[in-house]
Design brief:
The structure is a single chain. With about 300 residues, this protein is of the alpha+beta class. It has twelve helices and six strands. It has a six-stranded mixed sheet with strand order 2-1-6-5-4-3. Helix 1 runs antiparallel to helix 2, helix 3 packs across helix 7 and helix 10 crosses helix 11. The longest helix is centred in the first third of the chain and has 25 residues, at about 60-85. It is elongated and about 65 Å long. It starts with 10 loop residues before the first helix and ends with a helix.
């Protein structure tokens, strides 16, 4: 949405901008794509600007409901495309670095849980389950509000929340590493790759460590999740030696955790994020799909 700041104040614009951060938080978590989330917000704005605001009981509820419905429709339409995705799917990286820090209200809205691990789990849910879980557990909506959004009964929405929560708890491992510990571990990992210290790399990985690459079939990369310290240590050393050492690495926050953006002549080629308990690396997530890096 591009508001004309030279014109008189527009109540529709003011109201939409007041709730933009919350709407973006809903849309990004629903879709796993910042670009798609922005498209949904544009559609929500076009609907809002032609709505008689005086007939809307609560503007925020109307906007959240409209945004969520648009996201559900988009997920349903994209299901076949996502099922046919080449290799592992990861969300489009959400960066929070000094150069890309959103306004304070947006940071607060998006801080509750943006982890890549959670978004990967949410991808396994149905669109309605995903919406019900996010609205209930992340955005504190009650089942009556969710029922109005999804056009279902309250009882059905309670079941959706229960099923989604069970799946999330089953699949998502929570770690409590402090930002300082996580950043220190990232730097040790980069140094071990740079020096080709295989023993140091082995020591950094937990026994259940995984490496998930998302290239979308657009650039050369593994087309499966790799597992185990030995395989990951060999991969890390080889990838750095052949590819990453030629790129410029910048430390950033990726979906709330320390990570790297690696650029070639200023063009982002890879993002790398860690899942860690502060002592060992449990997961590495690398996005190489250029379509998911354009927004950086």
């Amino acid at each position: 949405m591009n508001a004309d700041h030279s014109s008189a104040p527009d109540p529709h614009t003011d109201t939409f901008e007041q709730h933009r951060a919350r709407l973006m938080g809903v849309a990004y978590r629903m879709l796993g794509s910042r670009a798609d989330a922005q498209d949904v917000l544009q559609d929500a704005w076009l609907r809002w600007r032609t709505t008689d605001a005086e007939r809307v009981h609560t503007a925020e509820a109307w906007l959240v409901a409209t945004t969520t419905r648009l996201c559900v429709d988009r997920l349903r339409a994209a299901r076949t495309e996502r099922d046919a995705y080449s290799g592992p799917w990861l969300p489009e990286p959400w960066l929070d670095s000094q150069a890309t820090t959103p306004p304070a209200d947006a940071r607060a809205e998006l801080a509750s849980d943006l982890s890549i691990a959670l978004l990967v789990v949410l991808e396994r849910l149905s669109p309605d389950e995903r919406a019900a879980f996010l609205l209930h557990d992340v955005f504190d909506s009650d089942c009556a509000e969710i029922a109005a959004v999804l056009d279902r009964s309250e009882a059905a929405c309670r079941q959706l929340v229960h099923r989604a929560r069970t799946q999330v708890r089953q699949d998502k491992v929570r770690f409590t590493a402090t930002p300082t510990a996580a950043q220190a571990l990232l730097r040790r990992f980069v140094e071990a790759m740079r020096t080709q210290d295989h023993a140091a790399l082995l020591a950094l990985f937990a026994s259940d460590a995984t490496w998930t690459p998302d290239a979308g079939g657009k650039v050369p990369a593994a087309n499966r999740v790799l597992r185990g310290p030995r395989a990951l240590a060999r991969l890390a050393a080889g990838v750095w030696r052949v590819y990453l050492r030629h790129l410029t690495a910048d430390e950033v926050q990726i979906n709330g955790t320390p990570g790297l953006v690696l650029r070639d002549g200023g063009i982002p080629r890879v993002t790398l994020a860690l899942q860690t308990d502060g002592t060992h690396i449990h997961g590495i997530y690398t996005v190489l799909n250029p379509d998911k890096l354009r927004g950086l």
